[in-house]
Design goal:
Radius of gyration: 21 Å
CATH superfamily: NAD(P)-binding Rossmann-like Domain
Oligomer: single chain
Distance between the termini: 64 Å
Number of strands: 7
Helix content: 40-55%
Order of helices and strands: EHEHEHEHEHEHHEH
Strand content: 5-15%
């Protein structure tokens, strides 16, 4: 029960990484506000978690809705110990010349402004308490750019720097601020579909195909699961990480290390007999 007595707000929590984290947090003793825009899915999911979870609609690009989501925690349970800024999407893709300003604004609103809004409205509550943990989902794309997702790459890099900047301010009040950089995670986003748009069987089948396709590109031979990220979020939310702040925790199965050893040229992995230089006597 690493989160016994704690209250958490999680955005994008009706499915994927957010849902896995909400489920784990409740199992570890927390009370959780599930925030999302998928109302039917979110209501059903929060109900499945029992009395220690409630659902609230939240478009994270809207300040009034982010403020209301955080207020739901204090109004219901009287405090806020953990904020997990998790909601996101891929956003605008393609060459720079084809991205419209409207696409830019929406992508940055969801991926970056949402993190700013979460920190803005959670931090006064946590400062008054003298404690708290703020976590945000960044990405390995904020460290190593992916192809064709210019705005996503830039936004996730900015989330990492915003995390560091916020951590420096919040440390004065015993508030820790950290980011998680997932690699490729088997969610409905990875399958290219919204969970609410397809049934569970089709979603599972598509994800299995994605897992199979991605497995050999990982040094650790599998694609990530939402639970892999949820466990890192639990670590950062709990007192196990009480002396950790301002970090970007990479959870990617070794993907950013480079090409797996098994896929390297044989001349590299099996170079032949080892010859050592021996100095003359």
């Amino acid at each position: 029960m690493k989160l016994a007595g704690k209250v958490a707000v999680i955005t994008g929590a009706a499915s994927g990484i957010g849902a896995a984290t909400a489920r784990l947090f409740v199992a570890e003793g927390a009370k959780v506000v599930v925030g999302d825009i998928q109302d039917e899915v979110g209501e059903r999911f929060a109900a499945s978690l029992g009395d220690n979870a409630i659902y609230r609609h939240c478009n994270v690009a809207r300040e009034d809705q982010v403020a209301a989501l955080i207020a739901a925690a204090t109004d219901t349970w009287g405090r806020l110990d953990v904020l997990y800024n998790n909601a996101g999407f891929v956003g605008a893709q393609g060459p720079f010349a084809q991205i419209t300003v409207d696409d830019y604004d929406l992508t940055m609103d969801v991926l970056l402004k949402s993190v700013f809004l979460g920190i803005k409205h959670a931090s006064p509550i946590m400062k008054a308490q003298g404690s708290g943990s703020i976590i945000s989902t960044a990405s390995i794309c904020g460290l190593v750019p992916d192809v064709g997702t210019h705005l996503y790459n830039a936004a996730k890099a900015a989330v990492i720097m915003m995390t560091k900047s916020a951590a420096l301010e919040m440390a004065e009040d015993n508030i820790r601020v950290n980011a998680i950089c997932p690699g490729f995670i088997a969610t409905q986003l990875a399958a290219g579909r919204e969970l609410s748009a397809i049934d569970d069987a089709e979603n599972a089948e598509r994800l299995d195909k994605v897992r199979e396709r991605m497995a050999d590109s990982q040094p650790l031979r599998r694609m990530g699961d939402p639970d892999d990220i949820a466990r890192m979020a639990l670590f950062l939310a709990s007192e196990d990480s009480e002396w950790i702040t301002g970090t970007a925790q990479v959870v990617d199965g070794g993907l950013t290390l480079g090409k797996p050893w098994r896929r390297q040229p044989k001349s590299v992995t099996s170079p032949g007999p080892i010859r050592m230089y021996k100095p003359a006597d």
